[in-house]
Amino acid sequence: MKTFRKTMSGLVALLAGGTAATAEQMVVLDASGSAPATLAPGSVIDDAALDVPVGVKVTIMGGDGEAVEIIGPHKGPVGATQTSETTADNAVRALSALMSEPERSASFAATRAGATAIARAPDPEPRNPYLVNATQGGVSCIFRGHPATLWKPPSSTEVQITIENLASQDRTFVDWPANAERVPWPPDLHAVDGQTYTVWLTPDSPRRITLKFLPATKSDGEAALAAAAAKCTDQSIILAHKVKPARIIQPQ
Question: Least enclosed by CB within 10 Å: which of 20, 91, 102, 227?
Fold first, then answer.
């Protein structure tokens, strides 16, 4: 009897459209000030359980990187692409965790109010999410189609930095021109996926940077999720700020 029931449940799932569907997980990117706490930026919601009150506007993104803006009232799914993949759900949760960190949660909604907020930001941090920040240690992602490029705030004089492969101890020197923000990764020290490099901007300021190579992505949203899953924190947040809704759902 148990075998029969399991077979029947599988048959019903196939007749209903293929495999047994699970609710698509989505992360809230933006919400109006009157939104409930369950719709605060960084919250993870199930598409099927979405409930946007009247007068509230939210932007949510699923595991495929597509963002949807919803103007309430709206209750129920928004027709998100069903990924139902563990990796996609993990990426959504990873981005949610980054957005929910105390030092980021308060500023995220404010700066997402417009891309100009990022464009006007001072230069202690790169605005381009596809650059390797030479001033900060940690994990940095390099997406296919974007050459490995180092970034630092420009200085009025030329400087020479040192880069060393931590495993092989191969070392090279890079001349950084005055007033330049970026230089190509040195060709004589190959950038290798998963490898850690020590970068000295000055003799007493070493930074250890681990490179992660990621596939090319089709959108800022897809790139933000991939970077979050790879623990490329700053790049993921910059990309998430850049995401624009592909669709708008509003009361008829």
Answer: 102
